[in-house]
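HUMAN: Can I see a protein plus its fold?

ASSISTANT:
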Amino acid sequence: MNDMAHPNIKRSLIPLYFVSLMLLLAVLFNHPSHAGAAEPSGTAFPIPPLSDNRDPGLPNVVVIATGGTLAGKARDATSFQTYQAGTYLMSDLVNQLPNKNKIANVNTYQFGNKGSGSYSMGDLYDLSLAVDQALEVYDGVVVTTGTDTMEEIAYFLDLTVRSEKPVVVTGAMRPWDVIGTDGPANLYNAIKLAGSGKTKSFGTVVMLNDIIQAARDVTKTNAQRMDTFETPILGALGYIDETNIRIYRTTAKRFKAGRADWATPFDLKKITKDKLPAVEIVYGYQDSSAGAIKGFVAEGAKGIVTAGTGAGGISSKMSTARSNAIKQGVIFVTTTRTGSGTMYPGGGNGIIAGDSLNPQHARIMLLLSLAFSNDFNTIKNWFGTVGTQAIQLKTQAPDIEAPVWPQGSALQVTNIGQNSLTLSWPEASDDIGVKQYRIYETGSGTVVGNVYASVTNGVYASVTNTVYSSVTGSVYYSFNLSTLTAGTTYTFSVTAIDAAGNESIGLSKTIQTNSPRSSSDSTGSANSGSVSPVVPVKLDVTVPAGVTRSVSWKDAIWIAIPEGATSQELHLTAEALQNVDGLVSDSRKLLSSVFEILKNFTQNFNKPVSISLLFEPAKLGQDQQPSVFYYDETKKSWIEIGGTVVDNKITVEVDHFTKFAVFAVDKPKSPGSAEISFSDIAGHWAELDIKQAVTQKIISGYADGTFKPDNSVTRAEFTVMLMNALKVDKKGTAPAFTDQQQIPAWAETAVAQAVDLGIIHGYEDQTFRPDGLISRVEMAAMISAALDTTPAAQAATSFADDQEIPAWAKGHVESIRLLGIIDGRSSNKFEPADTATRAEAVKVLMKMMQRK
């Protein structure tokens, strides 16, 4: 209900003054984060430690209280709307809950005690940091707030809390001490939900009236009723019925569980609270004036959210004021006042679509975005990813994502003896499930064991080894080794492998077995498994032939080797060069280390290898963007590849190893070319190649914002793509095709260039057939001609359907297959007569570019 008191309340003044005085002292002496506006983000909060007498079989939950109606004191037992919000202390309220000791070990922290609308954005900054600090110790956090701005507080936490542990926000519509109050039940169920772990990795959730809602989507819909919180269109996540907690819908964040990108870019520890800018909301209505926008801009607003009519419409007066404000650097987000509905990308520069965020949620998203960047395209991208949170499903390709370890995972070594020890590690996560864990002795490169995982009712169990659980319920696996040599140093590594054969990076540990003279001291601290892993001076890894492997080094470079990338054992090394004299002419443009990656054979990979590099966004100019380059040892020059950027990591696919680095390059000048936002490529198997091709101006999309990756390619379209890739400058002579008039104007130059280069010759009837769909064999022949390759001498290709490939094309097909540019489809069939899709065309062109 309302967080404010009724003005005519009469009550005993002495108890109220006493409580107020105690709260004021608590704020002054126990809440240092309120001391100033720009203190460091490392501020510590007096979060209570775990109780010494806690039940080890129960989860540990802390309730962080901010006040609100739940802690309100009413005039009498029937004063549902006449009360003083934020009066009772949370410790007293928790102590009144029956059976609380049966669901969790509960502690409390009184962050504040007032109505939700009385908290500043700086206070929410502190609250988020306090929640993260608490989650370093506790298994879950409950945050109690007033309901007036609960949805905004919850969404702020959802966007900023770094821990994946459960965060549950709750409150009440009636004060604690009236008949029929919902406060005790909401508090009890919130503690139960936080302790259950069922919303781990969901982000922040809101729980009132037994209903579980996603913080991003929930809104308050009624000023008085207890069932006020609803999620329009999408519906609730689940609900609680006494001991039963049911989850029927998930959040997009849950699909990133355990991954580094689960947390948003909004890490509050990297900024001070004074960096949170002024962001306002303007409400649209019939013939609305421009005064609100002008006034907010005059007061220094950096961003404004418009709550427009229908699909975000605003009046002409407001539109004019918005245009003028954009010229002054103000960023706008479009939302609707209707209560639900999605705003899609459109409009001009300076205007961002708010997706399905309501105005108050969009304001929180924009405020945090502006706190971390003033670049329009960066913020727009965040709204399209972090803000949208739409679930992206992969299409048309086998799973290539390796399992990932939970944040902070480590390989543990215990029970160290002369000839034996025990390895243990946490459960890894994967979108299709972890099949097994493989244990390597990395010194010899041998596999010393496998632990197979099975799934029963959603719980992983070890088939061949013992599983033990921590107090919080996290599953661990263990493996015993008993044939080791005494007094010997070993390095062990454990990887997780999913059902598709993708293998994760390894958790490694270096340890020394006990020598004979110290065998009685096997439990001593020196050999207890706490030895720190040896940090290599460079990455040095051996990958068996045909195996998928992902490796990383110093959180600065990541390399993913797909299955089938090479038919022989791969030994790769990677190191950051300390001296780049003679390699880098302008160090100001260098955004990363220069990495030299080497392998033990000269042939290129059969399949592209993914490389991700960490770079420094702070070194980018306003009109610059990062791009990966490789060093051509023959030409002694850097060659741009491009790359896909996620936060401060950029990823490319390559077919060979050499030196790689990230440099700052100028953003494309043509409208829209600096941004790749096709609506139909997210999760597509060719998404990375499509984005790289756009960056290199090889392809473009359609006017409706789509790329249509699975549409077939016409001969005219592919010719334009090919000429764009070759960067041909010469205009070319108009060819003499009998259907010359049918060639579209946008393709005329490219066709003329291709004819002059001898890449296309037309059909026997002297036609070009620009609208005809290009076949795979025609595409292969054109690529071969473009590279000027010598057709393979053998009379047959290695494809299973070789007899279906025309004799004139076999040499061309085999020559580019040997170069790794084109692959077969299922069952190693080339399917020469089939048409190529736009995605396939992009893929072969990007491979061709690496061969130029």
Summary: Residues 13-30 form the longest helix (18 residues). The chain has 15 helices and 36 strands. The chain has a mean pLDDT of 81.
